[in-house]
Amino acid sequence: MSTFVDGILRSVAALVVLLVLPLVIGQSEHKVMAHMQGRLGPMYAGGFHGWAQLVADGVKFAQKEDIVPAGADRRVFQLAPAVALLPYLLVLIAIPVGPHGFVGAGVDAGIFFVLAVMGVGVLGSLMAGWASANKYSLLGAVRSAAQLLAYELPMLLAAASVAMAAGTVSLPGILGQFHWWWIPWQIIGAFVFFTAGLAELQRPPFDMPVADSEIIFGAYTEYTGIRFALFLLSEYAGILVLCALTAVLYFGGWHGPFASGLGWLWTLFKTFVLAFVVIWLRVSYPRLREDQLQKFAWLGLIPLALLQLVLTGIVKVVIS
């Protein structure tokens, strides 16, 4: 019974994290973009530093009418936002936040589990595009699928390099083998993993599937109100998961001064520093064309990931 209760409590904790931290990232994006681009609107809602901007957005989405197109596949259309969001909840359960077993579920094949489940999220976009009965939505969904196929491989190869270095595919096991000299050794893999993750999340500059100047808003064009908000929440949840995984795999996760008591704070700190980088990239780089996006994956990231694997193999042989 105690094991069952412990599992329930950990699941509830992961759910709270999924509902709170992505909103914090979304609020931070408003503020960071306001400062970087001189936006005035997000700095005034509620008074001091626009503290109520997130509340205003929530009220706005709640008040909007929930519309389902007449020609849409109603059940699939309504289910798509949940399919896009729930995989990130499952991934959060498997990410080690601190030492002493502070993790939702100790999955033996942790790397493969989280990457496989993250890949399921694209089904939400495919379902939304197909069910909307809109050619722009369908085009955005097809672009999402093509982007996932291109960037899943370099992401997996980069993660395999860390697993090879640690001798395990368990996320807590990788953290248990971590050494600080891994950071310069695995920095190429970190770049590949983080960049491929951004592309899978369709974040700028890899946001061709939602290119508003071409296809309105891609697979999500026909969505309104709370369902549209759920797609936005899934995007920010994806940012949280990607940054947490990058911190765990390449930057030591909970490792840091006073890790035994403050390890979870180190994980959160590294995660939010990487989330700031995600926001920074949004306002710094123009959108890639579809051909540029594909070339960057196949001719750029995949060779770099293979180079990292070779380097990892050489280092492992030398130090063994």
Strand % is under 5%
> What share of residues is helical?
over 70%
Q: What is the makeup of the main sheet?
A: none
Radius of gyration: 20 Å
Mean pLDDT across every amino acid position:
85
Order of helices and strands: HHHHHHHHHHHHH
The gross shape turns out to be: globular
Query: Quick one: how many beta strands?
Result: 0
The rounded distance between the terminal residues' Cα atoms is 44 Å
The total number of structural domains is 1
Number of helices: 13
Derived structural class: mainly alpha
Provide the low-confidence segments as ranges: none
Task: Offer a concise description of the structure.
The protein is mainly α and 320 residues long. The chain has helices at residues 2-37, 53-63, 74-94, 110-120, 122-131, 135-166, 171-177, 182-185, 187-200, 212-215, 225-250, 259-284, 290-319.
Question: Would you spell out the secondary-structure blueprint of this structure?
Answer:
Layout: H1 2-37, H2 53-63, H3 74-94, H4 110-120, H5 122-131, H6 135-166, H7 171-177, H8 182-185, H9 187-200, H10 212-215, H11 225-250, H12 259-284, H13 290-319
Helix pairs in contact: 1-3, 1-11, 1-12, 2-11, 3-4, 3-5, 3-11, 4-6, 5-6, 6-7, 6-9, 6-13, 9-11, 9-13, 11-12
Structure description:
- The relative contact order is 0.14.
- The mean pLDDT is 85.
- The protein has 13 helices and no strands.
- The protein has one domain.
- With 320 residues, the protein is mainly α.
Question: Which features does this protein show?
Answer:
320 residues; mainly alpha; 13 helices; 0% strand; globular
